[in-house]
């Protein structure tokens, strides 16, 4: 390991009005290493990542590259300094190929397509990623899109890669592929910073771990030198230790509430659902698992009544709670948090006065919702985009489960949540089912399925491959069903041929 880290935060502090997001933080990422950044929701991880990526500036302290201080004027500067990012919600544009996306990031000069293709191809081979360079992004699975972002960063000569919770929407097999490729890239001398909530992932792939709590570094050191319990304690800190999950209680399900019969439906997802039949009874939790990109989004949208099936029928409840896969789809990004908290209730008489919205009443009710679901900060007048990812997620799940639904369609309800918040959301989902809600959870996480579900359905290429009681979902069956399957029909898996300019 060289003495000077490739990329570092030096005594960095950052404040957002009432919140000290980072407080004299030091993090050093070395060449050839994978460095995990851990911490509870709101601990300051993304803020640290944004400062390193040139997307935000520190109030105090500075970023250092190979021992020298730098001040980024924006993301462009950081790219020039070799800082690549792989965002969680990827930045690829559906209609564009990777070559075209890379061309967009070259504003200063006209670069020949052939040159860009050659750069991408060499980056793909550095990472050992057999990816289609000339396929529009809409035909790539979630996992392939992330690998595409990785290849684009490398083609921009990234010496450092920053990943903010890259695995929350990936299945086990895609996570393994991503980590495998990250390791290969690190072995070529790149430094990797990986933001994650998953201790198992950290243990599996990272060399070093730093834990943030309330914006301060509370632990840093080699992963091999620390046990899981110590890491978990550093993460959870003084907050309440999460209660053990309640024992599984087989409920006696009621009537059919959500029924899909022979449904074929398509949305923006590359994989439509085809001829799906599925029923969820009152008080029952059904979990749809499978490799991401096998029709999950179309299933969620059609079950929630957001899209109309091309054929077949969906009969649902009177009020459907819906948590979409992409958080921003459920929020009003340009507005204060109370708008997003109350958007489903604006028509209630309690919130109108003489024909106009009663803002004070809405802010008051939103505050109660933030309290109930432990959304931080508690002030609903701050912009919803100022909430950390996990707190946005808690807000959406809380709002939807509070809406007195009879059906709940929850796509990745615990993505981006820390351990404490995950347990809290699991309990809420169980409580909703106990109260008679028919719950359909779509998740890439088998442990989540095991913990929550009465029944598990396995999705592959838009079809239901198996529909089994959760108790029959043993490891072998689960692994074979969900990971031995190709990711998607339309996903090409070889490097495309060079095309003419
Ligand atoms: N633009 C902003 N305006 C105001 N507050 C902000 C802004 N960005 C972040 N914050 C606050 O800073 C704190 C740290 O947020 P950050 O997004 O870094 O957390 P995180 O560790 O990434 O959490 P998560 O695991 O939920 O993604 C939070 O309290 C958040 O509300
Ligand atoms: Mg974050």
Description of the structure:
The chain has 501 residues and is an alpha/beta fold. It folds into 2 domains: 7-236, 3-Layer(aba) Sandwich (Rossmann fold), CATH 3.40.50; 256-483, P-loop containing nucleotide triphosphate hydrolases (Rossmann fold, 3-Layer(aba) Sandwich). It is 31% helix and 24% strand. It is built from 15 helices and 21 strands. A 6-stranded mixed beta sheet has the order 6-7-8-3-9-10, with helices on both faces. A 6-stranded mixed beta sheet has the order 15-18-19-13-20-21, sandwiched between helices. A 4-stranded antiparallel beta sheet has the order 2-1-4-5, with helices on one face. The chain is globular, with a radius of gyration of 23 Å. The two termini are 43 Å apart. 49% of the residues are buried. The model is unreliable at 484-501 (pLDDT under 50). Bound molecules: adenosine-5'-triphosphate (ATP) and magnesium ion. Adenosine-5'-triphosphate (ATP) binds at residues 16, 19, 21, 39, 41-47, 377, 386-391, 416. Magnesium ion binds at residues 45-46, 164, 388-389.
Mean pLDDT: 87
Largest sheet: 6 strands, mixed
The number of domains is 2
Instruction: Determine Rg (CA atoms, Å).
Output: 23 Å
**Fourth-tier CATH superfamily name of the largest domain:** P-loop containing nucleotide triphosphate hydrolases
Shape: globular
Strand order of the largest sheet: 6-7-8-3-9-10
Low-confidence stretches: 484-501
Strand content: 15-25%
- Please identify, by name, the CATH architecture of the largest domain: 3-Layer(aba) Sandwich
How is the CATH topology of the largest domain named?
Rossmann fold
Top CATH class of the largest domain: Alpha Beta
């Amino acid at each position: 390991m060289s003495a000077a880290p490739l990329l570092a935060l030096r005594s960095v502090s950052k404040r957002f009005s009432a919140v000290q997001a980072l407080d004299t933080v030091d993090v050093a990422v070395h060449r050839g290493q994978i460095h995990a950044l851990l911490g509870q929701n709101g601990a300051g991880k993304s803020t640290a990542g944004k400062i390193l990526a040139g997307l935000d500036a520190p109030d105090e302290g500075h970023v250092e590259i190979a021992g020298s201080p730098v001040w980024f004027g924006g993301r462009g500067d950081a790219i020039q300094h070799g800082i690549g990012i792989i965002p969680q919600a990827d930045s690829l544009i559906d209609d564009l190929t990777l070559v075209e996306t890379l061309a967009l990031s070259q504003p200063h000069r006209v670069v020949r397509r052939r040159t860009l293709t050659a750069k991408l191809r060499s980056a793909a081979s550095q990472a050992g990623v057999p990816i289609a360079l000339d396929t529009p992004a809409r035909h790539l699975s979630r996992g392939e899109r992330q690998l595409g972002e990785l290849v684009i960063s490398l083609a921009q000569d990234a010496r450092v890669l920053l990943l903010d919770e890259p695995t929350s929407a990936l299945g086990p097999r895609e996570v393994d592929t991503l980590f495998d490729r990250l390791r290969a890239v690190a072995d070529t001398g790149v430094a990797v910073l990986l933001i994650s909530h998953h201790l198992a992932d950290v243990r599996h792939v990272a060399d070093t771990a730093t834990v943030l709590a309330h914006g301060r570094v509370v632990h840093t050191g080699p992963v091999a030198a620390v046990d899981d319990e110590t890491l978990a304690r550093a993460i959870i800190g003084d907050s309440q230790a999460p209660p053990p999950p309640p024992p599984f209680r087989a409920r006696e399900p009621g009537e059919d509430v959500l029924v899909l019969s022979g449904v074929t439906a398509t949305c923006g997802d590359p994989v439509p659902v085809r001829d799906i039949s599925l029923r969820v009874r009152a008080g029952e939790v059904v979990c749809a698992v499978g490799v991401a990109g096998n029709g999950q989004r179309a299933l969620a949208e059609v079950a929630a009544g957001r899209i109309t099936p091309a054929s077949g029928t969906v009969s649902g409840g009177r009020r459907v709670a819906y948590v979409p896969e992409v958080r921003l789809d459920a929020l009003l990004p340009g507005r204060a948090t109370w708008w997003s908290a109350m958007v489903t209730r604006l028509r209630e008489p309690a919130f109108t006065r003489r024909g106009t919205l009663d803002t004070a009443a809405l802010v008051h009710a939103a505050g109660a919702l933030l309290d109930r679901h432990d959304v931080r900060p508690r002030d609903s007048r701050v912009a919803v985009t100022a909430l950390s990812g996990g707190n946005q997620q808690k807000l959406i799940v809380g709002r939807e489960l509070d809406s007195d639904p009879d059906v709940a369609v929850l796509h990745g309800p615990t993505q981006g949540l820390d351990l404490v918040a995950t347990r809290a959301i699991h309990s809420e989902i169980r409580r909703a089912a106990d109260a008679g809600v028919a719950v359909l959870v779509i998740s890439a996480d088998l442990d989540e399925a095991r913990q929550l579900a009465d029944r598990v359905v396995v999705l592959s290429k838009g079809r239901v491959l198996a529909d089994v009681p959760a108790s029959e979902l043993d490891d072998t069956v689960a692994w074979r069903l969900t990971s031995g399957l190709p990711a998607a029909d339309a996903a090409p898996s070889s490097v495309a041929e060079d095309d003419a300019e």
